[in-house]
Automatic annotation (TrEMBL):
Protein name: DUF3887 domain-containing protein
Recorded superkingdom: Bacteria
Organism: Pseudocalidococcus azoricus BACA0444
Amino acid sequence: MFNVMFSKQLPAWQTSLVLVGLTWGLSGITAPAKAIPSNSVHPLSSQLAQAQPVPPQQLQANAEAFVDALFAQKYDQAWQYLAPQTQAENPPAILQRKGEIFVKRTGDFRQRVSSRVDGAIVVIKVEFSKLTDDLIVIMEPDGKVLGVDFPAAPNDASAQPASK
C-alpha cells in the first residue's frame, strides 16, 4: 500500500479506516497512525457536527477536481479541496513535493478513467504512463479531502499496465 497523504488526526467516525501499522505520508518521513478510541471525543468532532454533509455526487466532483488540480500541478488549487487539518499538514509546497515524488513512481498522469463513490470514499481509476490503478480519496462529510491512498506499486498485481 502506498500512502500519498492523510491527516494524522482522523475524525472519530473514520477510525474504522485506520489499520495497525499504517503509515502516513509519501516523503519517507512517516509516523505510525494512532486510532482514536471509539468512546473518546475527538477535538474536531464539534466541527464535524457543524459541517453540512454534501451529496455523493458532490463528494465525487470534489475528489475528481482535487486529482485534476494536483496532477495539473495546480497545487494552490488542489490545496483548497483539502480538509483544514490536512491543509495544515500539507501546504502547497508539500503537495508539490509529494506530487513530484509520486509521478516519479507512477509516470506522468494521462487521464482519469472512471470514478465511483462508496460512502466517504471516492475511488478514482487513474492512468499514468507506467500503470493504471485506483486512487482512494477519503472525504469529509462536507466534501473536503481528508486523504489519498494509492494501493499499488508499479509491480503490484493490482496495477494494470498503462494502455499504449
